[in-house]
């Protein structure tokens, strides 16, 4: 059996880091098993879906390193859903209901007041043909419910273990709205059957839905896939991420200079028993991801952890990996510059600060009590060519001539040459700054 998974986002907003979790879990599972990944756009909600969001989904997944093997849009597959509806009607599993939303809410309120579960009472099944005709003549249009058979639904979840849903505690789900459009459940089930999806890996908020979907799959004669329900990625306060808020959208993280693999690593490994480590590529990450290691508690995402993880990843990047990005930022200096500043960066874009330090102009920081010392250092500046030994040679000579040592020797030179009191090792930075710039910055 070839493993086949799917990620089915709705184009109603930009993908955020919480969406990245199921997308990546599916992709990594496919990678680990030599399988296929289907991107299925759930765009049946014509009021809320927008093309710009649909296109952005592909861009964001590509940034993460996900390249779908198949791409489908549910809005182009309605003929399949229509056929499934007719099958369910013919089998007596789909029936029309005429209650309005207000009527249903009042009925649920009465049930709660009587201490009964607020589930649909199947009153529509008791309607005669004449009563249904009268409702339709009065302008009522039916919505259509799937008739659950009351049998419990069980499955072995790759994350949660043995699961069981008692369908007697659920309302018969609405599959078709009054206007004839489909709710999420029917297209999802039909597509899973028709596309041959073998594994459904998604958030734990779908556990109850799974019981209903398995019942519908069986009613349609389809093969039931293997399910895995992972914990949801949430804020440190335990709140779910939302497309509407735009918080931590993948395109924002990309714009702000985060590494795709830092985002991928933290999105997948947070909320598992595995260490959150910055892997260099998705193949490496796939080798360390096990759905059985996913926790049952909420996976809380801390942006500060992403910052630290991103920095650790940047510190391991070789020059070839970042060369094009540095060039796009107008940064030169080649490998020598990159290896000089890499360990002082939280993001690759931060290298621009140190390139300004190298190229200038800068505002040297010179304390009044250090003017004579810096003048003496200037007079002792070696001739070029310079290399990584020049800083040590120069400071040794200056220290012997002025009697200064330690911080009193090094800090005034750093502040005069870089305008800062911290930064990369000057033994690497000084040859890049060069003798001309050094002379210009010393009083």
TrEMBL record:
InterPro entries linked to this entry: aa-tRNA-synth_I_cd-bd, aa-tRNA-synth_I_codon-bd_sub2, aa-tRNA-synth_I_CS, aa_tRNA-synth_I_cd-bd_sf, Glu-tRNA-ligase_bac/mito, Glu/Gln-tRNA-synth, Glu/Gln-tRNA-synth_Ib_cat-dom, GluQ/Sye
An example Gene Ontology biological process: glutamyl-tRNA aminoacylation
Motif 'KMSKS' region per UniProt: ranges: 240-244
The protein's Enzyme Commission number: 6.1.1.17
Coiled-coil regions, chain positions: none
Record domain Glutamyl/glutaminyl-tRNA synthetase class Ib catalytic: where: 3-307
Binding site for ATP: 243
Occurrences of domain Aminoacyl-tRNA synthetase class I anticodon-binding (ranges): 372-442
Motif stretch ('HIGH' region): 9-19
Recorded catalytic activity of this chain's protein: tRNA(Glu) + L-glutamate + ATP = L-glutamyl-tRNA(Glu) + AMP + diphosphate
Any Pfam family matching the protein: Anticodon_2
GO-annotated cellular components: cytoplasm
Superkingdom of the organism of origin: Bacteria
Keywords in alphabetical order: Aminoacyl-tRNA synthetase, ATP-binding, Cytoplasm, Ligase, Nucleotide-binding, Protein biosynthesis
Annotated family: Belongs to the class-I aminoacyl-tRNA synthetase family. Glutamate--tRNA ligase type 1 subfamily.
Subunit structure, as described in the record: Monomer.
Biological function: Catalyzes the attachment of glutamate to tRNA(Glu) in a two-step reaction: glutamate is first activated by ATP to form Glu-AMP and then transferred to the acceptor end of tRNA(Glu).
Annotated protein name in UniProt: Glutamate--tRNA ligase
Protein species of origin: Methyloraptor flagellatus
Gene: gltX
